[in-house]
Amino acid sequence: MSSETIKFNWNCKNTWRRSAKNTAWCLLGCAIGDFGTILFFQITKIPFPVLGIMILAIINGLITSIILETLILLQQNFKFSNALKTALGMSFISMISMEVAMNLTDYLITGGAILTWWVVPIMLIVGFITPWPYNYWRLKKFNISCH
Fold first, then answer.
1. How far apart (Å, rounded) are the C-alpha atoms in residues 86 and 65?
2. Among 41, 67, 99, 119, which lies 20 to 30 A Cα-Cα from 78?
3. Which residues contact 28 (CB under 8 A, 6 or more apart)?
4. What is the per-residue pLDDT across 8-35, written as a single tens digit (0 to 9) for each?
C-alpha cells in the first residue's frame, strides 16, 4: 500500500442509516416476489422440485425488486428508461446476495420452499444483514444508492 491510500470509514452513522433505508426498500421488493412464489406453491401444492421453486422465488424476487425500485425512482422524477437502468444497475449485487441468503436460510431451517410464521422473520433479518455492508460501502465510496 502506498502512503496515498485513503482509509475507508466504516463509522459514519448517517451512511449506515441511509444504507439501511436503501437495503430495506430492496428487501421489500425482493420479499414480495420471493415469498409470493413460495406461498403460491405452498398453497396450490403443485408438485415441483424444491430447487425449482427456490430458483423461481429468487428470479421473481429480483423482478419485483427491480419493479419497486423503478417505481420509487419514477416518483423522484426519473425518466422511465433512466429509472429502469438505475434499478437494474445499481443494486443487482445487493439483490442477488439478499435473495440467495434468504433462500439458503429457508432451505437450512425448513428444507426449502416452506413459509411459516417463525421462519419469515429469520429470512428477512438474514436478507437484510447480508447486503447491508455492501450497500454502505457503495454509498460511502461512490455516493450511489437507488433511493
1. 12
2. 99
3. 65, 68
4. 889 999 999 999 998 999 999 999 999 9
Q: Report the alpha-carbon distance of residue 4 to residue 59 in Å, rounded.
A: 42
pLDDT in tens, 111-120: 999 999 999 9
Please tell me the total number of residues recorded for the chain in this structure. 147
Q: Which three cell numbers stand for residue 46?
A: 403443485
Distance CA 130, CA 97 (A): 7
φ/ψ of residue 8, rounded to 5: -75, 135
Distance of CA 102 to the CA centre of its chain: 9
The residues, any chain, with a CB within 8 Å of residue 30's CB and separated by 6 or more, are 61, 62, 64, 65, 95, 98, 99, 102, 127
> Among all chains, which residue has been given the C-alpha cell 434468504?
102
pTM, entire model: 0.88
